[in-house]
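User: Show me a protein chain along with its predicted structure.
Assistant: Here is one chain, sequence first, then structure tokens.
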Amino acid sequence: MSVIHPANRVYLARRRKNALMMAVSSLALAFGLFWLVWIIFTLLHEGGAALVRAALYTQMTPPPGADGGIANAIAGSLLMAGVGTLIGTPVGILAGTYLAEYGRGNWLATATRFLNDVLLSAPSIVIGLFVYSVYVAKVGHFSGWAGSLALSLLVIPVVVRTTDDMLKLVPGSLREAAAALGCPMWKMITSVTYRAARTGILTGVLLAVARISGETAPLLFTSLNNQFWSVDMNAPMANLPVVIFQFAMSPYEDWHRLAWGGAALITIAVLALNIVARVLFKKND
């Protein structure tokens, strides 16, 4: 009767645990991919026919029973998401830079991180109600500016968190080398740490763009909707999330088709944006 050496027993136990964890991890991966593929397949199956129609990109949102598209909603979403990103990204990057580079061990930085995490997990409808109360109710009308402001408030906490995390991952030796050469703090941040963390910071910006691209609740209280073509940011403005919500809740089949097309368009646009950005930055690294 052979006796298993204690070291071998430990090795075999570790192998069994490793095999068990690999199996559980693989099942979790398959579970997540299953739903992701199902969602994408459903979007393409239901909205694919609308995506290939030129009218979807050239015509305005139609009344019930009429042919049309979502050109005004696409333009409105691009405008508000673009303005919201332009407002929120610099604020988020600068705030994240302060937390990572200047606020180490500072009570203000600790409080800011806590408040940022609260804002990050806050329901978007709360942001919409806030902007409605402080802006829309004051000026007396819905507008694209109000929608952009609400979206920028959703961008900021995402960018702050990712910028803070990515800058903290930059090795301290790089900062010390720059300081040893007489590099001032601001120059070290812009020339060393930003360059080392730029891919992660860009990923955070893209995550923020992906989040605001499909937000409906804040836009219902800020920009509302517009059935006609309008690029006036001081007036109610059409946007894809609200159009999808309204059309999907309607009893009209033609509106349902446009809603599926809009949902598929948002998904494909966000996916393409992430892929293009990652490929470009991978080549530059």
